[in-house]
């Protein structure tokens, strides 16, 4: 069975987005070129940042039609991340709240991609 292991965000400039993700993820990129930067994550997943103007074929639309989720475990873990990310000055799109699936909040990256923190399904 084939399993996806890479999500790619189209960004204005990977060089401008790299410091944001380096700080957020606490790691260096595993690959970097002028048009594409990749971060390998602990769970075998990879995050790619691809210069929007060099994507082939060009996307038909841009905007946030999805989210990158960070599921964190432990009592108060979502609130801890919220306080940390807010203290870093990350733009908050959704303040800390409780939804059907538990506590959550959303921040935006430099290109407006939505990053949601929540608890894993139990």
Structure overview:
This is Drug:proton antiporter. Residues 3-120 form the VOC domain. The protein is α/β, with parallel strands linked by helices and 122 residues long. It folds into 2 domains: 1-60, 2,3-Dihydroxybiphenyl 1,2-Dioxygenase, domain 1; 63-121, 2,3-Dihydroxybiphenyl 1,2-Dioxygenase, domain 1, CATH 3.10.180. Helix content is 19%, strand content 36%. The chain contains 2 helices and 8 strands, in the order βαββββαβββ. The protein has helices at 14-25, 77-87, and strands at residues 6-11, 31-32, 36-40, 46-51, 67-71, 92-99, 102-108, 114-118. A 4-stranded mixed beta sheet has the order 1-4-3-2, covered by helices on one side. The protein has a 4-stranded mixed beta sheet with strand order 5-8-7-6, covered by helices on one side. A hairpin with a 5-residue loop joins strand 3 and strand 4. The longest helix has 12 residues, at 14-25. The radius of gyration is 15 Å and the shape is globular.
How does the SSE layout of this entry go?
Layout: E1 6-11, H1 14-25, E2 31-32, E3 36-40, E4 46-51, E5 67-71, H2 77-87, E6 92-99, E7 102-108, E8 114-118
Parallel strand pairs: 1-4, 5-8
Antiparallel strand pairs: 2-3, 3-4, 6-7, 7-8
Pfam family, one: Glyoxalase
Domain VOC: 3-120
Protein name: Drug:proton antiporter
Helix/strand order: EHEEEEHEEE
Instruction: Assign an overall shape.
Output: globular
Q: What's the CATH C level of the largest domain? A: Alpha Beta
Count of DSSP-assigned helices: 2
**Derived structural class:** alpha/beta
What value does the Rg take, in angstroms? 15 Å
Protein name: Drug:proton antiporter
Domain VOC: 3-120
Pfam families: Glyoxalase
Organism: Rhizobium lusitanum
